[in-house]
Amino acid sequence: MGTGSGGGGRGWRPSLVTWAAAACVLIGTGLLSYTPAASWLHQYSQSRLIESYNQQLLAESAANRGEVPSPDEALGAARRYNEQLQFGALVEANTHVPTGAGDETGSEYWSLLNGPAEIMSRIRIPDVDVDLPVYHGTADLTLLRGAGHLRGTSLPVGGASSHAVITAHRGLAEASMFTDLDRVEVGDRFTLETFGEVLVYEVQQTQVVAPEDSQALRAQEGRDLVTLVTCTPLGINSHRILVTGERILPTPEEDRAAALKSSELPRFPWWALLSIGTVLATIGFVWRAGYRDARPAE
């Protein structure tokens, strides 16, 4: 008489080694995907915010309800502020950002260029995929939202003998911001959009300086300058990257045409396809390995 087979052992039962290998792959994929995913989501959030800002600015200006000043009024007040400002700026040691030291007597900094969502301007650096709102001041909470304008320096409206300073974080896990500012080269361009005014700057100088060296942040007679500032090296923040641009006049027509348009960021997340592919491949591996592991011993 024959004996029973005991059920044949053909069920799906992945071994402990299979589960461990799959877990390692999935955890590794998650860790590697976190930074690009967080940065992509931050860029998406910033692009929606900028689009909302543009739409509100246009709508409020057209309606002339007085909830925000008209572009001419806002820009005029900002230029008067710049004329009164006795420029000064200091990049203090052991701090993440520079601090202003200008004389603002007779001016109300926080009320100037106070647009929708408290945004004063927009900065775009196409060569390194930067498109950020610019807010008043450089407080920690401000710099988690976007770029900050250094109080005590010229407001970002251009003009002879003006020098605006804009700063942003570098190396945040959840946002790229000015992380790639070290890749900007002399001859590259960046653009400020302030209450509909388009200001295009060509990079004249890039340098790394000690925190106490603020000479490069001073206004220069007759020149229209903007300096972008962030910390370096990543994670140490002992020095500052300074990228200084001088305004191009007349403003290039293609830049005027791009004013108040939606952000081109974030770009398509190719990294997500790789992550999804890895997850699907891991699932397929566990599925097949489970049947192989469940085969009865010969």
Automatic annotation (TrEMBL):
The active site is at H169, C231. Gene3D superfamilies: Sortase (2.40.260.10). The keyword Hydrolase applies. Keywords: Hydrolase, Membrane, Transmembrane, Transmembrane helix. Pfam families: Sortase. The chain crosses the membrane at residues 270-290. The keyword Cell wall biogenesis/degradation does not apply. InterPro entries: Sortase, Sortase_C, Sortase_dom-sf. Signal peptide: none annotated. One of its GO terms (molecular function) is hydrolase activity. This is Class C sortase.
